[in-house]
Amino acid sequence: MLLRLLIPLIILAFGGLAAWRLGVRVEAPKPQPAPPQVLKTEILELQRSDYQITIDSQGSVRAHYTTTLTAQVAGTIAKLPDRFEDGAFFKKDEILAELDPADFQVAVSAADSRVARAEAVLVQEEARAKQARLNWQDLGYDEEPSELVLRIPQLKEAKASVDAAKAELEQARRDLERTKIRAPFDGRVQTRVVGLGQAVGASTPLGEIFATDFAEIRLPLAPRQLNFINLPSHPGDPEVPVTLSDAIGQHHDMQWDARIVRTEGALDESSRELFAIARIDDPFGIVSGKPPLRIGQPVRASIRGTILKDVFVIPRYTMRGVNRIYLVDRQNPAIRRTTIEPVWSTADVLVIKDGLESGQWLATTRLPYAPDGAPVEIVERPVAAEAPLQGKAAKASGS
């Protein structure tokens, strides 16, 4: 009975002791000062240099002119050579189609006969004119005979008849020659729309052909790019070199040389862009043997712009925010946040004219948190770093 009373009392005593211990206030630990954190970064030493601007654009290849081939005389298609098939090449003056020449040969023969008859009449009139003068002299007249007596009007009419007959013969021969439809230039067939035995008129389209001596590419240029390129605007202005590359991946490593020869006279109303016309010789590789650039093929263009003198060219990956970079104080290595105003930029580099000085150090390591004035430790590189520049731009040397 006594044991039953002691057990609850013991439990209560231990519970009260535990509650008292848990209620004792524990002194909080004193904060310890954090050791100063030193940032580590690699650097580039800034130097002024000249930078060759390269402007990127794109467009599609087009023939410098396309012609609808037509017949000059009416007739029936008698021959269609293989060179007048879709996609076939041809040379200037080669025959692309022939009409049935039978009717035109008859017309030449008839015109030739009319010339012979007219010449015979002319010979007779010349003889009559000579005889009329002799008769006048035999009659003993002293005055000069009139033109009518000498049959001069009849002689002129006979000469005119000969000229007219010769002109008709020449026209008949030209019409016969025109039954052979010849290529007006070196080119290629885009489409042929006639077949053998088809009757065509003097203006019936036979097909579409285009020249292959050179092609053109219409390249859009944004207004901000126009200040960095000297485009030809007058006859005799120097042409601008252009490098073309394939935009659809068939020949991604192939390049073609072109040149801007002129610009369009007005800005595009929707985009406010100016279109420059680039010309490429031998686009189908007939002479050079290069892979062809087909009509309508999209291409990328790298246009050589002006050269910026005495500028700083820095890698784009060194940017820290909008137009901000981190410089490092040379005397006391610490971060200096600096705002820049690029005069030109690409996917790889920024070009700055003002606001920097030669010899300054540029931090290139991406730092997660770098307040202004934070101390840094310079990480030496075994190989000097170089900024990825374009064209013939000078390179920034690493520290």
TrEMBL record:
Keywords: Coiled coil. PANTHER family: MULTIDRUG RESISTANCE PROTEIN MDTA. The keyword Metal-binding does not apply. The keyword Cytoplasm does not apply. InterPro entries: MdtA-like_BSH, RND_pump_MFP. Residues 115-182 form a coiled coil. This is Efflux RND transporter periplasmic adaptor subunit. Belongs to the membrane fusion protein (MFP) (TC 8.A.1) family.
